[in-house]
Structures are given as structure tokens and as C-alpha cells.
Design goal:
The complex is a heterotrimer of chains A (170), B (111) and C (89). Chain A has 170 residues and is an alpha+beta fold. Chain A folds into 2 domains: 2-40, no CATH class; 54-159, Alpha-Beta Plaits (2-Layer Sandwich), CATH 3.30.70. Chain A is built from 5 helices and 3 strands; from the N terminus they run H-H-H-E-H-E-E-H. Chain A has a 3-stranded antiparallel beta sheet, with helices on one face. With 111 residues, chain B is mainly alpha-helical. Chain B has helices at 2-31, 35-60, 64-96. In chain B, helix 1 (2-31) runs antiparallel to helix 2 and helix 2 packs antiparallel against helix 3 (64-96). The N and C termini of chain B lie far apart (59 Å). The relative contact order of chain B is 0.12. Classes of the chains: A alpha+beta (170), B mainly alpha (111), C mainly alpha (89). The interface between B and C is large, with 54 and 51 residues.
């Protein structure tokens, strides 16, 4: 339920931004429209299992924003210098969660982080998810796996309310 | 007034930094030979370039509604750009490399 | 001084757009071209935002929202086409 309130709040912010006029009338109409939208078109995959923790979510977004700043320093260095340190490779990581929202959050964070990008996510027969990550400067495979699992831990703490990773946690 | 001119200068410098990163993104499109390396450069650098330009323009515009609109555009950009890059990467991996799956943690040479 | 910096910003964005356009025309395979087109539209959106910041004219900010969403939809459409039908353009 808190997840739907969070999404409705985001819709209210978009409504206010598009009207450009932060008045009380716009706020009231925005809340009405957002509530109606969320309950007529419920977000997919939400069967009441997602819990939004605002502090953990802020921490996740902060990590993602800092990751994109680091990524661009790496990209700028790579583009400007003539020598190539590129050693591309694909690393398979076994995730613990298989809820679509958590996987989406982790994929976005990986897409913004330096040198990594998600190529594919596969559902394994036992229900867990396997993520294939393309790495630009591949040194140690276990380092990549640790980075992805750290991001997954942050994402799980943000929307699933669990800091530990158990099999089929979400 | 001096404060206004200083604020305009800071906004212009932030926007210039954003334009530099966007230019680095497109230079990266040409510098790398491999489509995945190009995706790394273009996706990440153009996102930060757009965010910096939005930040610089937001300091300049005085209405709070306008700054909120730029903020919403920034959030939409951060959500949609990595998703678009991932979808292109998946299509390139499944189709252009020939075989659907290569063994994990293998390195490959560009085609 | 501020004006020079602003003109330099817009000039750099113009060069970036040109480079992206060349990649769309020259690219080695269809995903290269899709990536170039996506980057081109992003440079366009950055240019509109920079123009709004320079001239303090907020008429075109709605264009930015629509352009961001449409580029996302278009990129996904073409990428799914490539998945189904192959990358030889």
C-alpha cells in the first residue's frame, strides 16, 4: 500500500510540474487525478509485497547518483587518452531476488555505474534470476559480482524491507 | 546587480560543463570500435551532460514551477536512458554476435 | 563573459549533434545506428534545455518532456525489432 502512495505522490509532483503553477487548486486536483489513476491502473507486479522505506530509498538513489559521477570521470579519461585499457567481458551473477521492481532498480544502478551494463536477465528453473553484466575494464570477476550484489542489497533494503539476502526473499 | 550577474555566470559554467560531457559522449561514439563500448560512453556521459544542463538552467529560471519541471525531466531522463541503452545492448548481444549465449565471463573480440 | 560561455555551450552541443548524426549514417550495424539516433535526440533535448536557460524563455520545456518519453519509446521499439528480425538494416 505504501508503494502505491509513493507512486501517487510522484504523479502529483509530475502534475504540478506540468502545470508550472504550484497553487492549492493544482495540488488538490493533482491528488485527485493521481489517486484515480493509481487505482484504475494498478502498477504491475505489486501484489502487496513491496514495502517502501524512504531512508533506504534515498540511500539507494544517492549511491546511484554518485555512481554516475564516477562513471563519467572514467568515460572522460577513456575517451581523451589514446591508450586503451579496455578489456571487455561478460560476467554472470546469480541474484537473490526475483521481483521485477528490485531487478529493475539494480539494472538501472548498474547502467549508471562506471564500466558496467546489464545485457540480459534470465529466469532460472528454480525461480531465481541470473543477470549477465557487460564490463568494460574487466580485472577480477569476483569484484564485479561483489559490486552487483552490494547494489542488490541496497535495493532490497529500499523496497523489500530486508537487509539480508535470503533465497527467494521477495 | 552583482549577485544576479554572478549567478548567471555560475549557471553558464555549469551548462558549459554539461555540454562538454555531452560532446565527450558523442566523441566516444566515434572513438570506440565496439558497439558495447560506444554504449557505455554515450549512455552515461549524455545522461550526466543533460543533468548538468538542467541544473544550470534551473538556477537561472526564477519560477519554482519551472525548476520543478526541469527536475521532473531530470528524473525521467535518469529512468529512461539506462533502460534504452540496456534494450539496445540486449538486441545487439542476441542478434549481432551470432550465437544467443556465450559462456559467462568470457572475453570476445569485436566483429 | 557570460555571453561568450553561453555561445560556447550552444556551439559544443551543435558539434555533438553533428557527431551523433554521422554515427547514425555511418554506423556498422543497426544497433549502432539506433544508439546514434538515441544520443542525437538526447543532444537535441540538452540543446532545448540550454536554450531555455540562456534566453530565460520557458515556452519549450514541455517539448523536453515529450521528446524524452518519445525517444525512449522509439528506442525500445527499434530494439525489439532488431531482436526479432536481425540486425542487417
Amino acid at each position: 500500500m505504501r508503494y502505491r502512495v509513493f507512486l501517487a505522490g510522484w504523479l502529483v509532483v509530475v502534475w504540478l510540474a506540468l502545470w508550472r503553477d504550484l497553487s492549492l487548486a493544482n495540488l488538490v486536483s493533482g491528488v485527485a487525478v493521481a489517486t484515480a489513476t493509481i487505482f484504475v491502473f494498478p502498477p504491475p507486479g505489486d501484489r502487496g509485497r513491496l514495502i517502501v522505506r524512504p531512508l533506504a530509498l534515498l540511500r539507494f538513489f544517492g549511491t546511484a547518483l554518485w555512481a554516475i559521477v564516477r562513471a563519467n570521470i572514467v568515460v572522460a579519461w577513456e575517451v581523451v587518452t589514446p591508450a586503451n585499457q579496455i578489456n571487455e567481458g561478460v560476467v554472470a551473477v546469480n541474484l537473490h531476488a526475483n521481483h521485477p521492481t528490485v531487478i529493475t532498480l539494480v539494472s538501472h544502478a548498474i547502467g549508471l555505474a562506471p564500466g558496467t551494463m546489464v545485457i540480459d536477465v534470465e529466469d532460472q528453473p528454480d525461480g531465481s534470476a541470473r543477470m549477465y553484466v557487460h564490463v568494460l575494464h574487466l580485472r577480477e570477476i569476483e569484484d564485479v559480482r561483489r559490486e552487483v550484489l552490494d547494489l542488490e542489497r541496497l535495493a532490497l533494503a529500499a523496497v523489500a524491507g530486508r537487509a539480508t539476502t535470503e533465497e527467494g526473499a521477495v | 546587480m552583482n549577485g544576479g550577474a554572478g549567478m548567471a555566470l555560475i549557471s553558464a559554467l555549469v551548462m558549459l560543463l554539461g555540454a562538454v560531457f555531452t560532446l565527450l559522449a558523442t566523441v566516444g561514439l566515434h572513438r570506440f570500435d565496439d558497439v558495447f563500448a560506444r554504449m557505455h560512453a554515450a549512455g552515461k556521459a549524455s545522461t550526466l551532460g543533460l543533468l548538468l544542463i538542467l541544473l544550470g538552467a534551473g538556477r537561472r529560471l526564477t519560477e519554482p514551477g519551472d525548476a520543478l519541471k526541469l527536475g521532473v525531466i531530470g528524473v525521467l531522463a535518469v529512468i529512461t536512458i539506462p533502460a534504452g541503452v540496456h534494450v539496445i545492448a540486449r538486441a545487439a548481444w542476441l542478434r549481432v554476435l551470432g550465437s544467443p549465449r556465450t559462456p559467462p565471463s568470457s572475453t570476445y573480440s569485436s566483429w | 563573459m557570460t555571453e561568450t560561455i553561453e555561445y560556447l555551450t550552444l556551439a559544443l552541443l551543435a558539434v555533438a549533434g553533428l557527431l551523433a548524426l554521422v554515427r547514425v549514417g555511418r554506423g556498422g550495424s543497426l544497433p549502432d545506428k539506433v544508439l546514434g539516433a538515441d544520443t542525437l535526440i538526447l543532444v537535441l533535448a540538452s540543446g532545448v534545455a540550454a536554450g531555455a536557460g540562456v534566453t530565460e524563455d520557458t515556452t519549450f520545456l514541455d517539448v523536453l518532456v515529450v521528446v524524452t518519453l518519445l525517444s525512449f519509446a522509439g528506442t525500445i521499439t527499434v530494439a525489439r525489432y532488431v531482436e526479432r528480425r536481425g540486425a542487417r538494416a
